[in-house]
Amino acid sequence: xxxxxxxxxxxxxxxxxxxxxxxxxxxxxxxxxxxxxxxxxxxxxxxxxxxxxxxxxxxxxxxxxxxxxxxxxxxxxxxxxxxxxxxxxxxxxxx
Amino acid sequence: xxxxxxxxxxxxxxxxxxxxxxxxxxxxxxxxxxxxxxxxxxxxxxxxxxxxxxxxxxxxxxxxxxxxxxxxxxxxxxxxxxxxxxxxxxxxxxxxxxxxxxxxxxxxxxxxxxxxxxxxxxxxxxxxxxxxxxxxxxxxxxxxxxxxxxxxxxxxxxxxxxxxxxxxxxxxxxxxxxxxxxxxxxxxxxxxxxxxxxxxxxxxxxxxxxxxxxxxxxxxxxxxxxxxxxxxxxxxxxxxxxxxxxxxxxxxxxxxxxxxxxxxxxxxxxxxxxxxxxxxxxxxxxxxxxxxxxxxxxxxxxxxxxxxxxxxxxxxxxxxxxxxxxxxxxxxxxxxxxxxxxxxxxxxxxxxxxxxxxxxxxxxxxxxxxxxxxxxxxxxxxxxxxxxxxxxxxxxxxxxxxxxxxxxxxxxxxxxxxxxxxxxxxxxxxxxxxxxxxxxxxxxxxxxxxxxxxxxxxxxxxxxxxxxxxxxxxxxxxxxxxx
Lengths: 95, 483
What we know:
heterodimer; A: 95 residues; mainly alpha; Histone, subunit A; two-stranded antiparallel sheet; B: 483 residues; alpha/beta; Amidase signature (AS) enzymes; globular
């Protein structure tokens, strides 16, 4: 199967990456090339194989529900594009 | 001094032949002189480096020094380091000065290692040639027309050109071993979970693993002993006792069973690279190793499986770059979604965008089982191949890449061609195994070629033993480019 320009535009939107009309042809070609490579997997019989997420098959640790990190708001917000009164500013989302 | 190993520098510091400030000054001068043509460093900060060096000298004077206190090294620009720009090779993080240290950096600081600077890399560690950096490609010190390999190309070039005696690096699909091979340095990627990912900018979290590069296996052992260790802030960090990775270096290799996977010597391997690997195997035989043939039948499936799993995880990890809390924000936008889309379109380079979109697609509604779960099943098959192979051998040897370093620009227009060159490295990450690249010779056109040593889980000390013994009878690792 091959992705149409419309499919690619939808994927770009889901990815929150603006793709211009001028770019979409080249992007589609490259994505289709990569998906062609990936399709090789479909020829392999993997029935009954357990998917592998972690090489050691360890389970996630639990810890005590206690405070472990001090507040470092100022240091962390020093690298933010726009802050005010300790809050991150974004364009208005509620009218 | 410039060609000295970590081990030698450590001795010189202990003997008071040189101070940490003198060492740092010497390397900084060399970086000033050579970095303009190599582009191995993104950030150098003389004042910060010399402050760290002076602190290391004070620590030595106070009798509180460790083995490596005062030795200068370089850090891949993927490890968050407080007060240093941590760009990850991306415009997205060009303005990001980290407010905290990665675990790897904390460990290096605790050991008293001095930071020489931050090395160039493919953007967000995505690439095999270093051409995907926002800061421009790194050049291979052996041949300025050649790629250094990627993604840790800056670290490899810096060590090869003797701009640093060692460097940190990361390996998600070969990003330590392939540049180490192409630049003629020794590099080690440990077992997944041995080095904490805390503060290491995430690419594909189930594959990402920190490691090191240096001139020798002995130096890699010293460095790995510093950076490895359990860290509760990384949910996949393994709870294991600290190890001295130097402990087995001197062991003789008599009786060592070396596995050669037939799939790694089939079509596609360049003749000159094949010859170099054969010669390296012969050297190990002289040291008493026995050679057995093994099979890793699913090797070719590592490419599609990797290029599903890595982009899928990348698309999730890189969703954090939204122009809100840190990183690049577009200057003009009409609403919140427009701000996200423009900030990300401007902040990411084309390879990063491609992988995010591939990942978004394979994880999207209706495709998850067909792609991600399928790839995870193939991942299990690949891990099982290694399990079967290691039943009959102690280490597996092979090439790192099908050819020596290719030319800059040669493959940059065709992502699929670039991906295919990762054939001998991806399986190791999918299985979570440790592996190394060790200098083993030069291609017909004079470019370095590395021997890959793959170990079983937690067999780092064994691999380092094999590499060290190999380096006792060869001098490929001691060769340096004329610059």
